[in-house]
Amino acid sequence: MQSQDVAPRPAPASGSASDPVVDVEQAEAALVEHYPRLVRLAYLVLPPGLGRNRRVLTAHALTQRALPRGRTATPVIPAQPAGREGDAGYTFVRLQVVRTALEAGLPLKRRAWPKRSQLPPLLPQVWGLRLFPRSGGADELALDQSLSALSGPARAAYVLRGLEKLPDGDVRQVLTAASVVDVDAALDEADEVTAQYALLDSPEFDPCSLQARPTDLMRRRQHTKAALAAAAAVAVCGALLGMPGDGWGPDGAAAPAYAQNPAAQAALDPALLLRVPAAAWESSARTDFSVWPARGDLTGDSSLLRRALAVWARPGETVQVSATPGTPSGGPSGPPQLLYAGTVDNARVVILYDGLRIVRYAELRDSTKGAALDFARVDGADRAGASAVVLGRSDGNIRYLTAPWVTKAAERDLLKPGSGAMDLTLSGGTAAPMAGPAQSGACTSWNVLQLTDASGTRLFTDLGELVPARLTTGRPGSVKDASGAGALRAWAPYACSLGAMRSAGVNSVNAWAYAAQRLPDATGTANWVCTRAETWQGGGELVLAQFHTPGGMYGAVAAKAQNVPSCGAKDPQVLAGVLWKSAAGSWYLLAAGSRGTSSISATGGVRATANGPLLAARVKQGAQAELKGALEDGRVVSGLR
């Protein structure tokens, strides 16, 4: 607890003819009318070392004891001529609240009786519960920490400026009347804290809007008074515990809904964050995010880590929160693992991992305003899936943090397979920024991340999430990384279709050339490719059947479906069709099935049948058809839709 520069309280002055006289009724009326503001004022001025529960009770006690014992004079403080500032009763009560709140922070002296305000309040008392204001956001937490570092008079000066809107001249008079010795020093010290006065009205500092938690239950059992308090609690809260004869309540042996979870409390302590040794991945049987070491230039910044954990547990209204589909956004159940804490461009970034999710906290480099919190589900990640995490995006560029086993990083354009890769510098696992894929407009390039480690080279694409999606090729069940020249050529016509898979929690995307079809009118051979996006949550998979004609730069999406097994490891079969216009001006229905398709039939606006996995039928422009395919094993499949 910091010492307070407050002089001993002088004897009450008798007042002068010019000082307004305040009686008990007038002061009581002001206190009742402005009680929430006065209690908030006392709470903010009281030393934070008391703890939030005692600060709440003491703030109420000091405010309720602020009434005069009879008629008394109060000096005129020329603040605002109207409203509560023109009310002598309010001015008197506020002065009493400030004075006693400052006295509560005075250190106890061995040879002097303590003042009443320095002792725990007799009233009000709440047995068996701890009370504290509702939680705010990161900004409120940072302000509370800044105020706790001030002396009592400086804290009072800051609060009178911000909460009471008093100019410095009036603040000076209030502090002088409250027996502060060095008012100038208090004002100068208050100037060191950024003027975030609007935050003083936050629920974080409202001791009239409270949350309740139980006290130490084990200690309560050891005292007789606690047993009496428990009996009273049963009488008042019988509905929670169940009445005699009803047996266990509906929640059985569960703790009350407001009970603290020690693991959740420990999760907010930056000192308990899990930090993995740098070489742990080399000997571990696992190769995923759990063996990533903590990296970055701010891993020792306890204040930053504490803010990140606090915002994760209780993000305020100003925090921008995003989560990939199927990702829970609740607080950590225990101390998470620290993967990164450092400066990225104009932001401070913290990346944490709790075994299920990657969580990214970011705040401005010189302010906690505009904080962002992003969640991404990564359970089941293997060596490839845990290769990289997005550190930040700025001006169309992306900066990645790579796995400790990554030895080389590069950038390449998926639309130009022959253009080669451009190396990215790796420093402490952080890759140099690279251009992101096309966001809107014409898709003239699609930049992807190429990572190399001892097991090979892999391609990853940014889809607007924390973890990039892995790109593969091949028949479902036997896919391989899209790193070779053939795989790059196979992906090139379909790169722009990846834009349809943004923000869907995609883990990997596979491109499989399942059929090649000679076009009518001898115009060459078209390729049928199925691209399937798998997700971290195991649902919401997106499947696209694409048709690419000779000489065309892009593939055309012929059909798409979601939440289907087609084109996947469980059911690699796929069937799709498209209306195509030949160079001679004729229209055709073209359809193709994967290997194992014995026949295809079209019904509806088109009647046609073909043996084998390919069908071509001349049709009119705008014709519509339903496709059915028969497999060699007797099953029937429908066209993808």
3D structure, described in words:
With 641 residues, this protein is α+β, with helices and mostly antiparallel strands. Helix content is 22%, strand content 27%. It has 15 helices and 31 strands. The strands form eight sheets. Strands 12, 13, 17, 18, 19, 20, 21, 22, 23 and 24 form a ten-stranded mixed sheet that branches. Strands 5-9-8-7-6 form a five-stranded mixed sheet, with helices on one face. Strands 28-27-30-31 form a four-stranded antiparallel sheet, with no helix packed on it. A hairpin with an 8-residue loop joins strand 12 and strand 13. The longest helix has 17 residues. It starts with 20 loop residues before the first strand and ends with a strand.
DSSP E strands, number: 31
Shape: elongated
The whole-number mean of residue pLDDT values reads 84
Helix content: 10-25%
Q: What is the makeup of the main sheet?
A: 10 strands, mixed
Low-confidence stretches: 8-18, 75-83, 233-249
Q: End-to-end span in angstroms?
A: 69 Å
CA-atom Rg in angstroms: 35 Å
The number of helical elements comes to 15
Strand content: 25-35%
Structure class: alpha+beta
